[in-house]
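Much of the work behind modern protein science is quiet bookkeeping, done one molecule at a time. The protein below has been through that process, and both of its lines are reproduced in full.


***
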Amino acid sequence: MSKLDQLDSWHSDWSQLRAIVYGLGVTGFSVADTLAELGATVLVIADKADEKSLDVLDVLGVTHLVGASKQASIEAMQSFGAAVIITSPGIRPDDELLLTAEQGKMPIWTDIDLAWRVRDKSGTPSQWLCITGTNGKTTVTQLVEQMLHSAGIKAAACGNIGVPILDVVRDPANFEVLVVELSSFQLHYINEISPLVSAVLNIADDHLDWHGSFEVYANTKGKIYNNTSVCCVYNVADTLTYQLMESSSNSSTAQAVGFTVNTPAPNEIGWVEDLLVDRAFIDDPSVAEELATLEDLKHIALVSPHLISNIAAASAIARAAGVQPQEIASALREFRLDAHRIELVLEKSDVSWVDDSKATNPHAAAAALATFDSVIWVVGGLLKGVDVSPLVERYAKKIKAAIVIGLDREPVLTALALHAPETKVFEVTVSADQVMTEVVKIASSMAVAGDTVLLAPAAASMDQFKDYADRGNAFAQAIKKEVV
């Protein structure tokens, strides 16, 4: 057994470990902080870092190298004599420092790997429910957390959702269950974990510039099913999620449960008209047990087909973790959607203004476009190597007009010209701080009763905005200025 294999508990002797932390964002800092608390010797290597983080590392006695050349960083790594490198998940696998580590047979972890080993800090190790997918994973993660809380289970959502998992592991609250959202970046590097429940919600083109191909991206997502102990959840409407589950390792003993927006078959959870029903976690699968109704969602302004699907998925995960039917319904009555996810900003003169800035890929944008009949579509940004043509072709009849923003405009304009020649197209080329003002002015000039002005860019935002939230906020502020 190697020394790293022996480090399988918070209470193991970490004092002999020398580890490199690569990257010092929120995740990297949580790793360095945790390793310091464990007593390991740490070297942080990062391209950039804020002064506050560096000040804290100094107090902790953690050595750091920030802003050095790649060659200097590699030399520092090699001379440090580390047993493992823990990388921030957004760093590409073809990064020169990571390639050098790999060539030197140095194990590469992420914060997820470390968290799995030290999840017993406060006693009994937490159970993990792991969720991934191209679209909807944050909403499903939050729904599952709400359902567990409704059942009186001490649970926390963490991981890619924004809360570093190591911060949750070290929380004195000692959570019984962690609902872990995992991105394809995290799954690329992940080693061996064993979730209680795992789920792939859907698979569509995204981050192809990072992974290199759709096949690699899909197989990376499928790693989440490996070593699942109780239940693997898949999307009945997306056969690839089932295939990924079938080909995963050591999951044959776990129950396979599908979720659907339609009438469920045995071993599925789905919808029968206005009723959410369970045919998976009941004694007699020839009948169905009611979990909730659409009436439980009456407080949500826009109940999209995408949300209906997410609720079925979350219910399957929660039921696998022991949540009872009445607790599902109670959780739905309390649940509130995040901002910027098919969010109604304003309804005036029978025109709806909807912010779905979180639709950072075509699959997410499709969920919004499918919800409305006549759309003035605000689209564009950083496409991440993904082709928007299939999206435009599929929803061309719904798109009354398109307002194209962002850096990668040409592929969008080409797709619209080819697949939606009847659609009015406007290209916004003003400075970033004026983009949404111009968008709203254009939309206001043509919107009539029955139209939906929809910000669902199908692209990332960092070309013109800080992030998708900044993009959505700018849209909402422009609406309040120009329309209200």
